[in-house]
Amino acid sequence: MADLPLLIPVLVAALLGLLVGSFTNVLIWRLPRGESIAFPPSHCPHCDHPLAPKDLVPVFSWLLLGGKCRYCRAPIKVRYPVVELLTGLGYALIAWQFPFAEYGAGTLGLMALFTVLLAGSAIDIDTYTLPDELTLVGTALGLGFAFANAGIQSTAPVWGLPSPEQALTGALLGAGSLVTLDVVGSWILRRFRERQYPDLPIGYQQISLALLAGAWAGPWWGLGAALLSAAANAVARRVLRVPELLTLGGFLVSLGLGPSLGRSPLEMGQGALLAAGAAALAAGVYWWVQTLLEKRRGPAAAEADAAPDAYDPSAMGFGDVKLAAAIGAFLGWERLAVALAVAIAAGAVLGIVQAALKSERRLKFGPYLALGALVALLWSEPLIRWYRSAAGL
């Protein structure tokens, strides 16, 4: 009986998770289709019949209906109750590990992160996309919850939830790390040839410029250089090319020459990644706004402005870049490092398996980022302590 007061918040969190899991299914279905998550009310995707409250009870409605629609008897995917159960379990585990009495709104923030990760993973598996409504909004939520975290006192502050400064650093490093892998990897895939289809006014060219400028002048000067290049493109109404031989080549050479010029490679790398992350998020927000404006202008205008089918090869999806930013915003840079290490290791193993089986070549990296984030959230402390001990730090 003494443990009952501790279990009640966990049980309440589990019930909340079941309800939010039902909403998560709405996100998974509607966001990739560009539909409103509020209107129309819940309906069967097969017959469009509105669903009554008795049809929407998490898990139990699916079980009582035998996994079929009450009105047209079409099968309902088992994923619906699975998502609800996973959300209930995830929320309960978060409430147990991060009690609301100690972490306050920070606990709710971690639950929001869980929903972003679960919905994003399911959508990525289905469509190879990660909607901006999850990734960019998730990044903003992570930064917002960091202000609530600022008042939390912890006896082990390294393992507490991030402060606003730590959340911003985590978001920029998350985006910067993956977008750097993308631009450098894509350059290698193109055999060091220039991009044929650069974005106007802001895109990968500006991110590469931010890498170089950030390495020497710091993150905010790097972001400034990227935005200045984008502004020049906008004024000229055409792409004013910034050669990657200069930006990416210069960045890689800079890391090698920095020590001989009295610069720390670690500081240069950090400045470059922060600048690239800031430029990547600026580009992501710009193109998200453009997409929303095109939708308001109507399908004809959106089709006329659509990107061409031709594109440069990419080493990493840009949705993954923005999801890493959201993870960094919620967890901070140290847990982010664990999340990225786990995700890359898991993705590499699957890539080897896919190559051996000669199966699908494209890797859906979102679920691995989600896995890495959950491992980092729950077990980053012992993992980092083990690494420091093994490295003699």
Automatic annotation (TrEMBL):
Annotated transmembrane regions: 6-29, 78-98, 104-123, 135-156, 168-189, 209-236, 242-259, 271-289, 336-356, 368-387
Gene Ontology MF, one: hydrolase activity
Domain of life according to the entry: Bacteria
Prepilin peptidase A24 N-terminal domain mapped to chain residues: 15-98
Main location: membrane
Compartments, record wording: Cell membrane
Pfam families: A24_N_bact, Peptidase_A24
Protein family membership: Belongs to the peptidase A24 family.
Name of this chain's protein: Prepilin peptidase
Organism in which the protein naturally occurs: Deinococcus lacus
